[in-house]
Amino acid sequence: MLIIVDNITDRIRLEGQLIQNEKLTSIGLLAAGVAHEVNTPLAVISSYSQMLRKEISSEDPRYKLLEKITKQTFRASEIVNNLLHFSRTNATEFADVDVHQVIADTLSLLDHQFKTARVRIDRELRAEYPVVFANAGKLQQVFLNLFVNARDAMPEGGELRILTDTVDSKIEIIVQDTGVGISSENIQKIYDPFFTTKAAGKGTGLGLSVSYGIVQEHGGNISVDSKPGIGTSFKLELPLVRKPVNV
Fold this sequence. Notes:
Layout: H1 2-55, H2 61-87, E1 95-98, H3 99-109, H4 111-116, E2 119-125, E3 131-134, H5 136-152, E4 158-167, E5 170-177, H6 184-187, H7 207-217, E6 221-227, E7 231-239
Parallel strand pairs: 2-4
Antiparallel strand pairs: 1-3, 4-5, 5-7, 6-7
């Protein structure tokens, strides 16, 4: 009986992954077309608004309006860049990458933000040989998305725990926060493109979709467990590079 239940569970999980991959592929193709069409007018709007700002005094009431236009144009441009990244299908360059180093580099980038947000960092990096065959830039984007989401989930401050360990031939990375958590009705949608629980203007809804795609591209798996009011935990599993044997 246990074997049958395990087989059904594995099948459901694989079917879910296939559906998600098909969804990402379809929307990725659409995103590429939309992004290229939108980029040019955005560049024109941004350029002219900056030119107009230079021609008037900062005391002019129109100056602040132009400033808002520029800021929102940059925001729209950021969304377009996310769309382009989301839709990229070109070959990724892979190499041996130290996961612990990528985590350290990403935390260093966000150090000031975490201090300002009163987020404490607890690192328990236990994996003995944390080397994976990966693209370091893409891997860093996954950690960046997870760490920023954790920070945003703790508006009053809290603790971000990052744990690594070796499980069989994989490295297991857990990113855990003490934030607001994700409701049961939303947790099934978090990898859907453009889905976000953040306030308007605070998120594009592409971060976790992109992260999901990157982890899949690296032959790994990402899963989530969340309890509203207690926190959220993401688990990443990536295949390890075989440790060299000293002869």
